TrEMBL record:
GO molecular function terms attached to this record: cysteine-type endopeptidase activity
Protein name: Peptidase C14 caspase domain-containing protein
UniProt cross-references to Pfam families, sorted A to Z: Peptidase_C14
Domain of life: Eukaryota
Taxonomic lineage: Eukaryota, Fungi, Dikarya, Ascomycota, Pezizomycotina
Domain Peptidase C14 caspase span(s) in chain numbering: 4-288
Family: Belongs to the peptidase C14B family.
This protein's GO CC annotations: cytoplasm
A Gene Ontology biological process term: proteolysis
InterPro entries associated with the record: Metacaspase, Pept_C14_caspase
Amino acid sequence: MAMRYVILIGIDAYPQDSRPLKSCVNDVEMISYRLNRDEVASQTYTLTARSEGHSAAPSSVENSMPKPTYQNLLSKFDEVINRAKANDLVYIHFSGHGTRSKPDNELSHASGDLALVLLDGEKGDQIRYLWGSTFALFLKAMVDKGLVLTVVLDCCFSASVYRDDDSEIRFLPFDKNIGRKQDTEELDYENYFSGNKSRGVSLLPNWLINPSGHAILVACGPHEVAKSLSTENERLCGALSYFLCQALDECGGLSVKHSDIYTNIRANFRASWPKQNPVLYGNRTQSFFGLPSDQPERCTIAIVEIDGGLHLQAGMAHGICMGDLFAISLVQTPKTSKEQLIGQISKIKALTSEISLLHAESRVVDATGWVATPIKQHILHKFPIQVASTLPNREMLISTLRGRNLVVQEDSSKEDNCFFQLRMNTLQHYEVIDRLGQPVYLNLSHMQQGQATDKDIADVLEHLLRYTAFKELTNVSLRAKFRESFCISIIDPSGNTLNPGQDLVVEHEKPVKFTFRLQIENIGHDVIYIFVYSLGAFWEVQNVYRGTYEALPPRNMQSGFGGIFRKKIEASFPPELIEQGQRECKDIFKVIVTSQPTAFDFLELPRIGDVLKTRSSRMVTSHRRNDSTQEWAAFNFPVRSVLR
């Protein structure tokens, strides 16, 4: 049975010249109470420091606990790493100040180097920075050992929004006199680009690690504020910590997935502090304090209520079209529940849409708990398919395809308009032909006549169309002002700069990994949000960044913003293709840039043939925004690997 380890850090008692806080120890007490309420046995390490003159609550966990100093925390990390075994669970919660230095290396150009502000010295009356690079070394050691890790950081790193008159903003300006300690270990970023089973693609921010074994929930983006709020019993606590405990109650306890918790948290933030947007990195299907789950989820998109209307948190940038149909239900409601309603897109914008219920008597109460599941999507109609007239049971197959909302072109004279054609090859295997007349590489053994069912064939064709729809996604109405606010390019292994649409061609004598860089510079005046996806050789759509998004503020060196998003992407030639005798591999890296936080995770696809695990879309901010701020742009970077 897996053991559970908990490390809780709450710091209010910063030195007077370092802005003491009042709510961080309350966070730790609240989280500790919530974990213990489920009677989950765990080894708990608590490091807290309460401000002088602040009376402790009767349930205080502080007592004679060690202070949250730099050395004490690192020793607890070491203890967990040494004691824990593979598949054990680790939860780390930090409430306190964050800070940021000015960017000083290539991998921190977007937001500078981030750090947690800890105490230091024998009496704990000094401060010391735990840099993200050092923190990542310990997190990596835990993940490498096979531990299942959850980290919550209820602090912020936003110098640009720091205000002297707000004592509960959890940011401390960087002090160069404290700076980097000489014995602070530096993280070798190059070691953190790990492969996946298709193209070895991984792209990580400067203090994140292999995303499969961990999840990190951060209170806000690099340009935002982490705030405290007053609870019903008039106790101050961090907004993220408070809504996290509430989400655990509302979503089903400690075994709930991070994606569900995140959706709930974001929905609750709109009521108290809509300018704060928590960010989730890593394995979103991992349970909050449990092992990763293999249970499939529904493909859902969040709904919020604005001025009495229902707003789907997806728009043209997500492939939403007028007239699309959705089933609307509560997050935790089974698909067959009578609570399910039917809605239709009645107005569409760049990043959001308005959805109307089809039955006048239907209504949604407290829309923050509701989500939409696609029923009919018109974007798939743009990619008709053709079924060869010689196929067995052709009419039944066509009926199945049309039941999936796919367009089947039966007029042979319009064959050129079809994106895919289904036929039978000489080996009696079903075969899909693309628009260029070339067979589509599927590598699916069950596509043989007599083995493949109509459902199997429909699954494959629908997958191909969804992949194609995402690949072809582009903004034909892109406003020049938004496009001119940033520059985007990739740097190939030889140092050449390539613009969107230009092919990156890499030739090898033998299969080796290769690295290129994605670079985006914000030359405008507003924050932009970056999403990076890999469209691979096995028809998968994967989030390369493995985070909600990368927020890129404009250049402001005094606030620690370099204005440049520069990340390495590592890729390799898939061994499966080599085994099939193929000498060329074509991928596409798609970059989407938006003017607001949003989510595209419900558009992700696994390898073709894998069980499609549906994804819960992140809940984005729900307060009213000016329509003119809803901007987006999409760019494709083709990558072709050739074995000579």
